[in-house]
UniProtKB/TrEMBL annotation:
Residues annotated as domain Glycosyltransferase 2-like: 6-109
Major location (coarse): cytoplasm
Protein name: D,D-heptose 1,7-bisphosphate phosphatase
Annotated keywords: Carbohydrate metabolism, Cytoplasm, Hydrolase, Metal-binding
Organism: Blastococcus saxobsidens
Length: 496
């Protein structure tokens, strides 16, 4: 079973990664197929993951795209049927591999994922701080990717993690709800990890209020009952709104020359802030540092929580469900990737259009597979040979990088084959070769036959017209882009 599992660990290079890798290296028994470390730092020294006992390790880089993008790159880079996500600040139990194998073995097809169990150690010699109590809530949270294994097919079906969630907050709940919306189930396994409380400064509780905007996004995407489905508590946002309103009312009434009313509003603000502060102070250690921090942050949190919530209300108007990136982008060759020289059989005349290499590299960097689907009727006409076609394809590889699949049709327009575009044969063959649902495939080309082949195969077509593209074909294309960069940019933005 473990041979069908890839472990994906997104990391920003925290020292805690060493403890995770040490435990994975020391664990007894069989290993998974691969360990993929996703380096999500904008820059920095290369990771040093080499340790005897680890499974084969591969490091990929996002350039700093955030946790959702990092996890997406991780699972897209994997080749196995199961993806087990671990965060870089957890420590798996020594028997984690063997319990993971038991948790996944024999799961019915209707189960898309298995969550591990989390323990959060709290100090034994004193009461926990507010930050420590908040971290302890992870032990009872549902569907968090601190330790959660998903079928790769389930991730592909919903487009993976929604990259509009910029923080490590709610992106895992959103994914779980979308997966369950497909009719699949998520279950809890019996493997365990330890999630230590990370060191944090006194203002951490202020910074995390930015997550209120993500709660708005969750409501817009999943409806008003999303908290019940995701097992996510409402928290104190209504109280924060009321306290903030009292503060604003006090200022406004004072400015309007109504001192008694302003004093009453100010008293409501003081009472609300004091109640909030005491709720945070009472269960904690109550030492001077903690009390001071709670008093200061309790005054700041209500207005900041309200501010971030209002930002989310404005930002997420009309938001749609995440579609994610396609699993495969297929390109027409002549006129799309390279300048069109009819029936070209000379590799020296293979000349990429401006931006072709950059566009393909951008897709590869995000874990999207790329391929070519090309009509080569010059073979049937006796103008070029298949060897010449192969030589030109090889030259294209040298100029713009490797492709995951190359399909070309050597037939003429009257041969009645099912591969020559606008027939869907090459698109369906490329998807079948890579095990990809055509609905998760995009075809980019310069003429009507390209987008018609995409539609016939159940894929999405985007036309990038050239001066020789017929006007009626341009008008009939369901999606059009000015150039290759715009077409690929639309794909990378999830707007395909």
């Amino acid at each position: 079973m473990l041979a069908q599992v890839t472990v994906v660990v997104p990391t920003i290079g925290r020292p805690s990664l060493d403890a995770l890798l040490d435990e994975l290296a020391a664990a007894p028994g069989p290993r998974p197929a691969e360990l993929i470390l996703v380096d999500d730092r904008p820059a920095g020294q290369p990771l040093q993951p080499d340790r005897p006992g680890l499974p084969p390790v591969r490091v990929v880089r996002t350039g700093g795209g955030g946790p959702a993008r990092a996890r997406n790159l991780g699972w897209r880079s994997a080749r196995t049927g199961w993806i087990a996500f671990l965060d870089d600040d957890v420590v798996p139990d020594r028997d984690w591999y063997s319990r993971l194998e038991v948790d996944l073995a024999g799961l019915p097809a209707g189960v898309a994922g298995s969550q591990g169990r989390v323990r959060v150690p709290l100090p034994e010699h004193r009461r926990p701080t507010d930050w420590e109590r908040g971290t302890a809530g992870l032990a009872t949270s549902s569907w968090i990717t601190a330790d959660l294994a998903y079928r790769r097919a389930a991730l592909a079906a919903v487009g993976g993690f929604d990259e509009r969630f910029p923080r490590a907050f709610r992106e895992d709940s959103d994914l779980a709800l979308r997966v369950m919306d497909t009719g699949s189930r998520l279950v809890r396994g019996e493997r365990w990890i330890t999630h230590p409380v990370r060191p944090a400064d006194r203002w951490v509780s202020v910074r995390v209020q930015a997550g209120n905007a993500d709660d708005v996004l969750m409501r817009r995407l999943h409806g008003p009952d999303w908290r019940d489905r995701a097992d996510a508590a409402l928290g104190r946002r209504p109280q924060h709104t009321a306290v903030t309103a009292a503060a604003l009312a006090a200022v406004g009434l004072a400015a309007a020359g109504r001192p008694r009313a302003a004093l009453a509003a100010a008293a409501a603000w003081v009472a609300g802030t004091g109640e909030f502060a005491w709720r945070r102070i009472a269960p904690g250690p109550r030492d001077r540092a903690e009390v001071t921090t709670m008093l200061a942050t309790s005054a700041l949190i209500p207005p900041l929580a309200t501010w971030h919530w209002l930002k989310g209300v404005v930002r997420h108007v009309g938001v749609r469900r995440w579609r994610g990136l396609p699993d495969l982008v297929l390109f027409d060759r002549d006129g799309t990737l390279v300048h069109d020289y009819p029936y070209n059989g000379d590799p020296e005349w293979v000349r990429p259009v401006d931006g072709a290499r950059e566009a393909l590299d951008a897709l590869r960097a995000r874990g999207v597979k790329v391929g070519v689907v090309s009509n080569q009727s010059g073979v049937a006409r006796g103008l070029i040979t298949t060897d010449q076609v192969d030589a030109c394809m090889k030259r294209l590889d040298e100029l713009v990088g490797p492709f995951d699949t190359v399909q070309y049709c050597p037939h003429g327009p009257d041969d009645g084959c099912d591969c020559r575009k606008p027939a869907p044969g090459m698109v369906t063959a490329a998807c079948a070769e890579l095990g990809i649902d055509p609905a998760r495939c995009v075809v980019i080309g310069d003429i009507g036959a390209d987008v018609e082949a995409a539609a016939a195969a159940g894929a999405v077509g985007i036309m990038v017209p050239t001066p020789v593209t017929r006007r009626e074909e341009v008008e009939a294309a369901p999606q059009r882009a000015e150039d290759l960069a715009e077409a690929v940019g639309r794909v990378l933005a999830g707007a395909w």
